[in-house]
Amino acid sequence: MLSDKRILLIITGGIAAYKSLDLIRRLQERGAKVRAVLTNGGSQFITPLAVGALTGDTVFTELFDREAEHDVGHIRLSREADLVVVAPATANIMAKMAHGLADDLASCVLLANDKRVLVAPAMNSKMWSHPATQRNIVQLKADGINFIGPNAGEMAEKSEAGYGRMSEPLEIVAEIEALLSPKEQPLKGKRVVITAGPTLEAIDPVRYIANRSSGKQGYAIAEAAAAAGAQVTLVSGPVSLGDPRGVETIRVESASAMLAAVKSALPADVAVMAAAVADWRVAHDSDQKIKKDGSGLPPALNLIENPDILKTVGHLHEDRPKLVVGFAAETNDLIENARGKLERKGADMIVANDVSPENNVMGGDNNTVRLVTRDGVEDWPKMAKEDVAKQLVTKIAELS
């Protein structure tokens, strides 16, 4: 799939640089031609000799290299590439990119570049979550930079874990193939709003009411819609998933906050309400932890209904999306309940699934859904949630 594609790989100074050697080989297996820029930091972890042995080409390391710069090499390098990949991308190189700094070969190449750029961040989880890094990410995405990862897991320090691990070489290769392969974009020019995950409704500072949703299906739909060319806003309850690629992600906790975020994201062409919103919340959550009083009786909780986000969107007079898709997670009478929801909520389609424990849908990687519309019911076989998302986006494109 990458036959004769030219990849300029920039390797910066992180322990994940060792993965870049495998990345070079994986790209070559698929027919790509790889040239490499190795920063001074990167050369502390892998050598120019190792990189050059794999690429079969000169490894570029210095900005003021008389031989390489006789024809303005830092400009030529990017001009001769189909894609520039920064892997690993440290917090330092991302900061330089975001602020337009150019004090070494890698940063000069990136500033003089006129090709698409893919960065694969790799750093300590605290560095990744630092406000400065997060600000730089927002700027880079606004500048059109593509991201892959980072993944969650154990850090090089062993005693720390979290987001910051560089994506695996094959994951990066798949993203490179997606960026360089021509693809249909049936939702190009469309705005899509998607909700995902659970909501948390506070009882006190310690306890809350929630659902078991992992957010995997909603996140997969957001990523598939973005890949189909849509401008996607994802409103997510608390989940452990990273932001989908190419998607504006707004994180909230409560149903009220989720509704407010959805309204702010309108108008849109399509709304996909995949979140598992808690039906109830306590009328007045306590600002202190509720203690046992020794009576053996639980505290009385005055529950009230949460706002119905799907119904609110489905019955809008102004700014109602052309297509409103809801989800029905049921444990019994699946189709009957889905049809009732379709009518009550003013939706155009309900994605119904049986979430009985034996089906392992809530938190699992697979799903079996049935599409319920006013025209009938369409049964889909069991498949990975990513495949459900792609098929659903195809259906949405047909109807919107």
Automatic annotation (TrEMBL):
EC number per UniProt: 4.1.1.36, 6.3.2.5
GO cellular component entries: phosphopantothenoylcysteine decarboxylase complex
Catalysed conversion reaction: (R)-4'-phosphopantothenate + L-cysteine + CTP = N-[(R)-4-phosphopantothenoyl]-L-cysteine + CMP + diphosphate + H(+); N-[(R)-4-phosphopantothenoyl]-L-cysteine + H(+) = (R)-4'-phosphopantetheine + CO2
Taxonomic superkingdom: Bacteria
GO BP terms: coenzyme A biosynthetic process; pantothenate catabolic process
Pathway listed: Cofactor biosynthesis; coenzyme A biosynthesis; CoA from (R)-pantothenate: step 3/5; Cofactor biosynthesis; coenzyme A biosynthesis; CoA from (R)-pantothenate: step 2/5
Cofactor(s) listed: FMN; Mg(2+)
Positions contributing to CTP binding: 279, 289, 307-310, 327, 341, 345
Region (Phosphopantothenoylcysteine decarboxylase) location: 1-191
Location of the DNA/pantothenate metabolism flavoprotein C-terminal domain: 187-398
Domain Flavoprotein: 5-177
Cofactor note: Binds 1 FMN per subunit.
Entries under InterPro entries matching the protein: CoaB-like_sf (IPR035929), CoaBC (IPR005252), DNA/pantothenate-metab_flavo_C (IPR007085), Flavin_trans-like (IPR036551), Flavoprotein (IPR003382)
Key words of the record: Decarboxylase, Flavoprotein, FMN, Ligase, Lyase, Magnesium, Metal-binding, Multifunctional enzyme
Family, as annotated: In the N-terminal section; belongs to the HFCD (homo-oligomeric flavin containing Cys decarboxylase) superfamily.
Physiological role: Catalyzes two sequential steps in the biosynthesis of coenzyme A. In the first step cysteine is conjugated to 4'-phosphopantothenate to form 4-phosphopantothenoylcysteine. In the second step the latter compound is decarboxylated to form 4'-phosphopantotheine.
PANTHER family, A to Z: HOMO-OLIGOMERIC FLAVIN CONTAINING CYS DECARBOXYLASE FAMILY, PHOSPHOPANTOTHENOYLCYSTEINE DECARBOXYLASE
Record's protein name: Coenzyme A biosynthesis bifunctional protein CoaBC
Species of provenance: Pseudovibrio axinellae
Name of the encoding gene: coaBC
